[in-house]
Amino acid sequence: MKILITGGCGFIGSSLAIFLKEKIKTAQITSIDNLSRKGSTLNKNRITENKISNIKKDISNFSSIKKLKKFDLVIHCAAEPAIEASRKKIEEVFNSNLLGTFNILKKCAKDNSNIIYLSSSRVYSIENLYKLKKKGTVKENFNINNPKSIYGFTKLSSELLIKEYAYLHKIKYLINRVALVSGPWQFGKEEQGFVSLWLWRHLNNLKLNYIGFGGTGKQVRDVLHIEDLCELVLLQIQKIKKINNKLFNVGGGKKNSINLLQLTKLSQNITRNKIKIGRVKKTSSYDVPYFISDLNYVKKLYKWEPRRNLKKVVADIYFWMLDNNSILKKYFL
Ligand SMILES: NC(=O)c1ccc[n+]([C@@H]2O[C@H](COP(=O)([O-])OP(=O)(O)OC[C@H]3O[C@@H](n4cnc5c(N)ncnc54)[C@H](O)[C@@H]3O)[C@@H](O)[C@H]2O)c1
Questions:
Q1: What is the pLDDT of residue 77?
Q2: 15, 18, 31, 33: which to mutate for ligand 1, most atoms within 8 A of CB?
Q3: For tag attachment on the chain, is the N or C end more exposed, with fewer CB atoms within 10 Å?
Q4: Of 219, 222, 223, nearest to 289 (Cα)?
């Protein structure tokens, strides 16, 4: 089976590439990545060590894509994943996240390749998320009509394009609306990947801030361990003939939800460091105070559920950082 992973030098793409290569013996995996994300060169080395090659090209340029060989399956991970970037670098986000998907789909249609898309929980409307009651979870039929950030717009528009292409060209698709994923080899920053950022700052005695919602650190997210996501995508590939043309919410779920204060405690316990954490009352209009995925649909279809808890996420990141502290210094702030 020939598999193309776009964004194969990113956190999720590289982890999937290595995992799938080991689990599917017949898989020939190739990555396409322009190495624009800080840290992607390190992930490139990691996939290369696993005999997976990367083609350094930009997916927003169709001429880079149309020359690629034929693949049976595309796992489309390449994107600018930070919501804040879509306020500040709107053209770049639009081109990578939406034009990029369009180009990938033209290639899929030509080759009759199936596609698994890493969408986002940020396709849901901000004002409706604000109204979500504490302890509530977000199902696939939650409101997507009101504004959701330009990032969320590019992800939702990509989903719609995928459905159009699947209808017209009879290719099979799966869409994973992924919440927060974390684990080793994620180069977290304030606006994206905060679990790894939190651990890095604790480990190295650097400063952090609780940003937004009064600076109380009480905003909540559900967190999925990268290995749980890899296991789900493997099941999706194995079952794609039977289960296809569907979309799912994918995250850590209620059991793996956490607020920043609790994350600080876990980080203090494992690093044995207590750092200064400031309070910034206001946040971006794209931020939301609370998100927990409802996993019932994906659980039912694949008999899958997250097996790794938050302590395991934190421990795995911590030991990865300890082992690689000096190399990682260049890539974390
Ligand atoms: N990590 C999460 O918590 C999370 C949550 C929801 C959705 N997602 C989605 O999952 C996917 C992967 O996220 P990630 O966390 O691995 O991000 P990442 O930034 O680590 O990986 C994305 C990769 O895509 C590459 N890339 C970006 N623009 C490109 C372009 N125009 N052409 C070629 N390569 C390009 C980057 O260099 C990077 O290596 C993204 O589509 C993101 O929207 C991630």
A1: 98
A2: 33
A3: C
A4: 219
